[in-house]
Each structure stands twice: as C-alpha cells, then as structure tokens.
Amino acid sequence: MADISIAKEDGPRRGRYVARVAGIDAEAELVFTHRGPGLISADHTGAPDALRGTGAAKALVDALIADARATPFRIIPICPYVRALYAKNPDWQDVMTLAPGEAP
C-alpha cells in the first residue's frame, strides 16, 4: 500500500481534496462545490497516470466521506467515480443526497 497523504483546500464556493503519494511527483484531486449550508457536490475526481494503481483516488473519496460524517454535510455525487464507489458502498447513504445507483 502506498503512503498517501490527503489535504483539503476549501474556498468560499469551491474546494478540493488533494492526494500525494510519497516518492511520486504528482497529485490526484477530488473537486467539490458548496451548494448551500451543509451541502456540497462532488464534481470530479482525477488522477494522473503516475498515480494510477496507488489507491490515491479511492483515498480521496474515503476522506470526503469521513469529512462529511465528521462535519457534517451531505454530498450530491455528480462525479462518475464517486457514484461508482457509492454503488459498491451503500452504507454511505447517510451522507449522500441520492440512493445508490440514482443519477443526480
């Protein structure tokens, strides 16, 4: 398993979670938008080829879910990658605005 660090960059309207893997000069990101009080949309998850297979993208989504439970906020899963993982993890329904498999 790769040594992955996650950071959150949050602005008034948009933000992102950033994943870096030790020894690799690249970063993956999960971009989100604030949609209202206690509500964000997970818009896009991307990882460059250098990070493929490291688990960085999944670590980003795991961080988003953990943050949503801790803060708390709810997530509109717009990103296809987030929706695909949600379909495999229906226990995330407590932080999602849709049921697993529903399109936004």
In angstroms, what separates the terminal alpha carbons? 33 Å
CATH superfamily caption: Gcn5-related N-acetyltransferase (GNAT)
Q: Which CATH-level-2 architecture?
A: 3-Layer(aba) Sandwich
The gross shape turns out to be globular
| Uncertain stretches | none
User: Number of helix segments?
Assistant: 2
Percent helix range: 10-25%
Output mean pLDDT.
96
Largest sheet: 5 strands, mixed
Strand content bin: 35-45%
How many beta-strand segments?
5
CATH topology call:
Aminopeptidase
Strand order of the largest sheet: 1-2-3-4-5
Work out the count of structural domains.
1
Which CATH top level class fits? Alpha Beta
Give the helix/strand class. Answer: alpha+beta
Rg over CA atoms, rounded to whole Å, is: 13 Å
Order of helices and strands: EEEEHEH
Short description:
The protein is of the alpha+beta class and 104 residues long.
What key phrases describe this protein's structure?
single chain; 104 residues; alpha+beta; Aminopeptidase; five-stranded mixed β-sheet; 2 helices; 5 strands; 23% helix; globular; Gcn5-rel_NAT; transferase; GNAT family N-acetyltransferase
3D architecture notes:
The chain is α+β, with helices and mostly antiparallel strands and 104 residues long. It has a single domain (4-94), classed as Gcn5-related N-acetyltransferase (GNAT) (Aminopeptidase), CATH 3.40.630. It is built from 2 helices and 5 strands. It has a 5-stranded mixed β-sheet with strand order 1-2-3-4-5. The radius of gyration is 13 Å and the shape is globular. The model has no long low-confidence stretch (mean pLDDT 96).
